Amino acid sequence: MTKTFPADGIQNLILNHKGDRSYGRLERDAGGYPSSRALQKAATSPASGFPDPRTISGLSRALNVPIADVIRAYAVSLGLPMEGEDKGVLRIVGAGTLPKQSQDLLISLARELRTAYETPWGEQPEVPAPAKPELAAAELTKDDVELAARVGDHGIDPEENQP
Description:
Blueprint: H1 10-18, H2 23-29, H3 36-44, H4 53-63, H5 67-77, H6 100-118, H7 133-136, H8 142-151
Region (Disordered): 28-50
């Protein structure tokens, strides 16, 4: 049975830069660490986690590639999306120059929108209990219910929720 690994994963990075060198030769080129056995395992087995910094540096030396390439290859092998690959990331050009308070507001708004779109219409997302007990006892007035119904809050029906 042939194992297939991600094209940009650590296995292919090692095999593509190994050339005709043995794993023993790669170990020497790495400065003695990682061992030839560890190098062979990394090249022929699925990655199970990130290696320690010493292994990353050694692989970089042995393969003559930047450390960032080794880290990226491990991330790809572990199924982690890398920059440009994650469909859940939105960049807003210029937002980094906004004041911290404005950046926090954008982040908060994005989280709320994400929660709203992940919640089926008509269902209320789970809301943590208020930090202050007196807030838990607050009751909706008739005006609150009518306003919520007019603006389209999920699950608020003015006919059913009369105070």
